Recover the amino acids of this structure.
């Protein structure tokens, strides 16, 4: 029987790359995102074995998603939480609406999707991979709320790893730097003060490679997520693995 992975944010840049990596590895992918038509198209194209269109900010929805995956594919061997949003700005002007959005999507949805998936993952001695960020390892200017959400994801993952170790379920996080995805383009367009190219260049300037720095590719993150769900990674749990061109190495 083929192994099954549940991926949240499967239509995003990292989520799509993760899904493609698991398909290449012979897994069945059950995808979660908000756009039902796009999910249906991905299934028709053979990229998804099943899907559920959902806004994961409601606890009951996370339970419905896991139930749908089990009803469709019969088992669950891994969960990869890729859904995430970015908002930035100084604390004194940061809105409650954006605060709630960032915490609800980045942290609350990840936690309750993990919680809903744990019983099925215990049955298969499966794995959880949560997407955190270099911003969960170090402070970033104008990103206090995003940093808080991702720092919480990292420590949540470590705590879950301890809780789940006796039942053979492994739990790790990946902390990428800036990844070349639509979310990064959104950042540049929304917060670049009319100069998105300059915004992106400022991001690259912070990397230790200097002028040769380039953005991380989604496929790099996907390969690591896939590896963490394999038997070869059976001794890795409670880890937060950086894939950030060394940007967090000095912190």
């Amino acid at each position: 029987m083929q192994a099954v992975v549940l991926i949240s944010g499967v239509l995003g840049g990292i989520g799509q790359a993760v899904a493609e990596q698991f398909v290449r590895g012979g897994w069945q992918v059950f995808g979660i995102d908000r756009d039902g038509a796009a999910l249906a198209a991905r299934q028709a194209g053979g990229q998804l074995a099943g899907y559920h269109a959902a806004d994961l900010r409601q606890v009951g929805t996370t339970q419905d998603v896991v139930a749908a995956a089990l009803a469709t594919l019969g088992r669950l061997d891994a969960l990869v939480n890729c859904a995430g949003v970015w908002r930035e700005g100084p604390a004194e002007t940061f809105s409650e609406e954006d605060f709630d959005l960032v915490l609800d999507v980045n942290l609350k949805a990840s936690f309750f999707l993990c919680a809903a998936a744990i019983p099925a993952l215990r049955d298969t001695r499966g794995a959880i991979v949560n997407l955190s960020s270099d911003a969960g390892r170090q402070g970033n200017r104008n990103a206090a709320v995003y940093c808080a959400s991702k720092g919480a994801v990292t420590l949540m993952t470590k705590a879950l790893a301890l809780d789940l170790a006796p039942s053979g379920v492994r739990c790790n996080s990946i902390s990428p730097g800036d990844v070349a995805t639509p979310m990064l383009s959104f950042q540049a367009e929304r917060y670049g003060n009319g100069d998105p190219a300059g915004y992106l260049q400022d991001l690259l300037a912070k990397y230790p490679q200097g002028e040769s720095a380039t953005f991380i590719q989604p496929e790099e993150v996907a390969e690591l997520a896939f590896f963490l769900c394999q038997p070869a990674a059976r001794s890795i749990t409670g880890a937060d693995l950086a894939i950030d061109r060394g940007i967090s190495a000095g912190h």
In short: The chain is about 45% helix and 15% strand. Helices lie at 13-24, 36-44, 59-73, 96-124, 144-164, 182-191, 196-204, 218-228. The mean pLDDT is 96. Residues 4-178+217-243 form a domain with the Rossmann fold fold (CATH 3.40.50.720).
